[in-house]
Each structure stands twice: as structure tokens, then as C-alpha cells.
Amino acid sequence: PASTLQCGRHRLDLSFPHVMGVLNVTPDSFSDGGHHVALDDARQRAEKMLGEGASIIDVGGESTRPGAAAVPVQQELDRVMPVVEALVRDLDALVSVDTSTPEVMHEVANAGAGMLNDVRNLRREGAMRAAATTGLPVCLMHMLGEPGDMQKDPHYDRPVEEAVAEFLEARVAACEAAGLRRERLLIDPGFGFAKTVEHNLRLLKYMERLTALELPILVGMSRKSMIGKVLERPVEERLAGGLVLSAMAVERGARILRVHDVGPHVDAVNMAWAVLKEGCDND
Ligand SMILES: Cn1cnc2c(O)nc(N)nc21
């Protein structure tokens, strides 16, 4: 895959793995009186993640958890825009924005965001064109259905890693046909989206299958139920399991790891990478 990604005014060197810190934008905390407090809090959390080694901060205005309902565009903008503007202006951060909404893509790109992260792989009306117009890199993630219904009865008529690879290849081809250059695309198997725990575990085990697309791979497994169900741990006790998964994902080709606990995952990713890159010099 191309070893550097132009993310707005930031260049991301993908010859080694990076950590993306999740910045939860608590719903509607910016539209009511709590505006400045909440914004300060978001900025401080982002600053902490950058200080711990995050290369990217991921900001989302719409929950993509199973069962989540879609939010109106204006509400998404109200949640996301103040944060994107603050992180770009005050921290010069590389900001990734989780959105499937064309208007939001345009607005955040104009505000200096560096990457678009669409869990709906640009399938919404106008999303492909909007993403192409922004000129930003776009992460295409595998998901069937919507967060509201995707976990009802996930099933695949062939090995899940084959189904996911074929799906992503098709979405990449659709993007190229729409004028989105391949150099701007990232792919993501979508752990936890329309998948059982078994699907998720198998998807990681055979994730190297995705490297055949020769595009940067982004993964998000942090605190997810694939950890909780295997280890029988509540969401606040899933860090150890998540660190193992980060190391295994790096071994299988992941270049961006979307996590909540940045510091520990930076160590896990750097440790795994130290082993993997060993010996490259005299290969
Ligand atoms: C927003 N979001 C939640 N989980 C995610 C994952 O696994 N990948 C990407 N790209 N985005 C995610």
C-alpha cells in the first residue's frame, strides 16, 4: 500500500502502525448551556491522547453502537463541528470524523479535518460524491444493514473473511469508479458490525486475507463485546483483552488501531512492531 497518506495538511507515514484515539462526543453536550465546559473537556481529553502517542483523534457525532438510532444532520453537526474546529485550531490535531452524512463531510473538511471514517462505507445518497469532493482519505468499513438491526441474526453464506474481503473490494471499486483515487482509501473489517463473536474472532484470525487489497487496514476492537463475551468482562475491564487484540492485529497487517485507552495500546502496538520489523534490514 502507499506508505504515506495525505490527510489534509498532515502526512501520515503508514510504513508503521498508528493509534487512533476515540473521542466520545457526549450527545448534545455542545448545544445546551454546557457548551464551553464540554468543549474544554473534549479538548483536554484529545490533548491527553495526543500526549500518550495517538496519531489521530476520531470524533463521532452519531453513535454506531448496536441498536443506535440515526440522528438528524443538524444534531450531528452541532455535536461535531465545535470539537473539530477546536482540535484543529488549538491542537493542530489530525482529526478523523465518523460520519456517513454528505453535509457533515463537507463541513468538517472545510474545518480542517484530516480523514473521513464512514462505518456505512459511503452507501448513503450523495456520500460517495461528497467524500470525493473533500479530497480527504476515507476509511471504508464492512457493515451490513444499520446499527439498529445489524446484530439481529448476522450470517454469511461463506467464510466471513471471504465475504468481508469481497465486500470491501466491491466498495473500493465503486469508489474508484466515482473518482475517489485508491491512494485515498483505507479498509476496515468492521469488528462488531453485523457479526457474531465467532465471526469477529475468525475475522481477526484470517485478517491477513485483507492485505491482498494492498490498502491500509484500520481496525476497531477496543472494549467491544468480542472481548467481553470471551473473557466475561464488563466494558470497563476489557483493556488487557484489547491489548492482545491490538498486537495480533498489527501482526496481521493492521496499520491504524482505533482505541479508547491510548497509552497502553501505543505500548502494545510499538512492542508488536518492534518484533515484526526486526530483521527487515538484512532480509
Ligand atoms: C465509529 N466506529 C466504531 N467502531 C469502529 C470500527 O471498528 N471501525 C471504524 N472505522 N469506525 C468505528
Strand content: 15-25%
Number of helices: 9
Global morphology: globular
- The low-confidence runs, each spanning 5 or more residues with pLDDT under 50, are none
Helix content: 40-55%
Q: Spatial order of the strands in the main sheet? A: 8-7-6-5-4-3-10-9
Order of helices and strands: EEEHEHEHEHEHEHEHHEH
Name every ligand kind in the structure: 9-methylguanine
User: Mean of the pLDDT scores?
Assistant: 93
Structure description:
The chain has 283 residues and is of the alpha/beta class. The protein is 41% helix and 16% strand. It has 9 helices and 10 strands. The mean pLDDT is 93. It binds 9-methylguanine. 9-methylguanine is lined by residues 60, 64, 98, 117, 119, 139, 141, 188, 190-191, 218, 220, 258.
Task: Describe the protein's topology.
Blueprint: E1 4-7, E2 10-13, E3 18-24, H1 35-51, E4 56-60, H2 73-91, E5 95-98, H3 102-110, E6 115-118, H4 127-134, E7 138-141, H5 160-177, E8 185-188, H6 197-205, E9 217-219, H7 225-231, H8 239-251, E10 254-259, H9 262-277
Parallel strand pairs: 3-4, 3-10, 4-5, 5-6, 6-7, 7-8, 9-10
Antiparallel strand pairs: 1-2
Helix pairs in contact: 1-2, 2-3, 3-4, 6-7, 8-9
The site of 9-methylguanine has 13 residues, from strand 7.
Primary descriptors:
single chain, 283 residues, alpha/beta, eight-stranded parallel β-sheet, two-stranded antiparallel sheet, 9 helices, 10 strands, globular, binds 9-methylguanine
Précis, in short:
The chain has helices spanning 35-51, 73-91, 102-110, 127-134, 160-177, 197-205, 225-231, 239-251, 262-277; strands spanning 4-7, 10-13, 18-24, 56-60, 95-98, 115-118, 138-141, 185-188, 217-219, 254-259.
